[in-house]
Amino acid sequence: MRTETTVRAVLAATAVAVALVVSGCSSADQAPRVTGDGKGGRSAPQDDAAVRKAWVDCMHQQGQTGVQQDKDGNITVPAAGTDSGSAGDYEPAAKICDAKVPGIHQVTLKNHERFVEMARAFVACARKNGYPDLPDPDPKNGILEIPRASFDMAKWDAVQPACGKLPMPGYHIGE
User: Fold this and answer.
1) Which residues contact 152 (CB under 8 A, 6 or more apart)?
2) By three-state DSSP, how is residue 24 classified?
3) What pLDDT, in 10s, does the model give residues 77-127?
4) Residue 144: beta bridge partners?
5) 135-161 in b/e burial notation, b at 16+ Cβ within 10 A?
6) Between vectors from CA 89 to CA 84 and to CA 91, what angle results, nearest 5°?
7) CA of 82: how far to CAs of 87, 98, 142, in Å?
8) 118: helix, coil or strand?
9) Which residues contact 18 (CB under 8 A, 6 or more apart)?
10) CA distance linking residue 35 with residue 141, whole number of Å
11) Are strands 144-146 and 68-69 parallel, antiparallel or unpaired?
12) What confidence score (pLDDT) does residue 42 get?
C-alpha cells in the first residue's frame, strides 16, 4: 500500500516538475524587455532616433567611425575595405554595441520594411541611370549583396549623382 502511494507521489511530483520546466522554456523564447518597450512600468517609450544615436556613438567608441546617422536617423555603414574602421573589427564592435544598446534590435525590426523599400528605390534609380545589372536588395534586411566579379566601380560612381539624394542602402561586395 505504501509503495503505491509513494509511486503516485513521485509521478505527481514529476508531472509538476515537467510542467514548470515547459512553462519556463516557453517564456525564455520571448524577446527580452528593454526600457520603454511599452509593456507597462513607469518608463516612457524609447525614441527610435535616440536609440540609433546611442548605438552609433557606441560604434564610434569601438573605432568604427564610418558608421553614421543621417538627419533622418538612418544608420549607414561603410562597405568592407573602406578606411572608416577595420572591416574585420566591425562584427565584434557591433556585438558589443548590440549588448550595450539592446533597443537597437527593436528599432531595426520596426523599421525593416522601410529599409527594404529605401534599398529598392536606390536599386531602381541605379538601374535607370546606368547600372542595369545591380542585384536586388535582400528582402530580409535591404542590404545589397554584390558579387565582386560583377561589381563595376565605374557604374557605381556614375549613378551616385542621380541616386545620391536617396538613402544609400547597406551593401557588401562579396568574394
Assistant:
1) 131
2) helix
3) 776 544 445 556 888 988 899 898 887 877 666 667 888 898 999 999 999
4) 171
5) eebeeeebbbebeeeebeeeebeebee
6) 110
7) 8, 22, 20
8) helix
9) none
10) 25
11) unpaired
12) 52
CA distances from 59 to 70, 125, 141 (A): 15, 30, 20
Cα–Cα dist 67/76, whole Å: 6
Residues of the chain whose pLDDT is less than 50?
A: 1-3, 5-37, 81-84
End-to-end CA distance of the chain: 73
Answer yes or no: are the C-beta atoms of 31 and 65 closer than 8 Å: no
The residue behind cell 545620391 is 164
**Model confidence, pTM:** 0.48
Phi first, then psi: give them for residue 70, nearest 5 degrees.
Answer: -85, 180
Cα–Cα dist 171/163, whole Å: 15
> Beta 171-173 vs 144-146: how paired, if at all?
parallel
In one-letter notation, the amino acid at residue 131 is Y
Backbone angles phi, psi at 172, to 5 degrees: -135, 130
pLDDT value of residue 17: 38
Cell of 52: 540609433
